[in-house]
Amino acid sequence: MQIAGSTALVTGAGRGLGRYFVEALLARGAAKVYATARRPVEIEGATPLILDVTDPASITAAAAAAPDVNLIINNAGLTSFTNLVTSDLDVVRREMETNFFGPLQMIRAFAPGLADGAVLNVLSTLSWVTFQGSAGYAASKAALWSMTNSVRLELLGQRTLVSGLVMASTDTDMMASFDIPKNDPVEVIRTALDGLERAEIEILADADSVTAKAALAQHPTAQYPALSAG
Ligand SMILES: NC(=O)c1ccc[n+]([C@@H]2O[C@H](COP(=O)([O-])OP(=O)(O)OC[C@H]3O[C@@H](n4cnc5c(N)ncnc54)[C@H](OP(=O)(O)O)[C@@H]3O)[C@@H](O)[C@H]2O)c1
Fold first, then answer.
1. Would 2 be classed as within a structural domain?
2. Which of 41, 85, 108, 119 has the fewest CB atoms within 10 Å, i.e. is most exposed?
3. Cα(165) to centroid of ligand 1, in Å?
4. First vs last C-alpha separation in the chain
5. What is the domain extent for residue 106?
6. Strand 118-122 relative to strand 71-74: parallel, antiparallel, unpaired?
7. For the domain that residue 222 is a member of, what is the CATH number?
8. Tens-place pLDDT, residues 143-171
9. How many structural domains compose the chain?
10. Which residues, judged by CB distance below 6 Å to any ligand atom, belong to the binding site of ligand 1?
């Protein structure tokens, strides 16, 4: 996927990785970048567009307003730091709406314009491993991973590159309350866009992502030692 000259659209562009994506796409020569968010966003050189990925009418309106898009970055995401068994199910549903149905509806709405273009779905190491307290998010990102694999096959006939970006903890608002090592967002975005330009269908942004992928081949007790305790 050649970014120079492309017309890109980024969801969740108001802050965090979305904003970095918009700036990096422009720096790499994208002809036009729609910076979409729930509220108007001002980024020099970008075209602002209102878009809530949980609102189908909003997605339809954005697709009508931006028919020239040939690269979508499905970046918008939500974590509510919740478990599955005793939590409020509406909170779990909201994570699924934002992280799974939102990106899927984006792809469905924009698919005709994506022939010979690309989609980048922003996954997570939590697509491949779960943690207590992030179970709803992990389920939604696992669903997004599966959807990425399915849609890649479904859009093969129109030569759409469907890629997934996997990363561990990265320094944005989402992880602000955790005092742990974090990726530099600028590095993550560079890796992501380099991968897109090389037409990689799966882009692993850090060592933790490589470890998480490899662990899928192991018995679950290797990933979750608590299962074999006692
Ligand atoms: N940071 C990490 O450690 C990490 C690790 C792995 C994967 N990721 C993924 O990376 C992506 C970007 O996350 P981030 O770290 O930049 O998080 P962030 O700082 O919390 O930003 C989340 C972005 O998503 C937007 N958003 C949430 N719900 C939305 C909706 N319904 N419609 C449109 N936009 C919506 C937010 O917009 P508002 O400003 O309107 O709330 C915000 O721009 C997410 O998909 C996240 O799951 C992040």
1. no
2. 85
3. 14
4. 51
5. 7-228
6. parallel
7. 3.40.50.720
8. 999 999 999 999 999 999 999 999 999 99
9. 1
10. 11-12, 14-18, 37-38, 52-54, 75-78, 98, 122, 124, 167, 169-170, 172-175
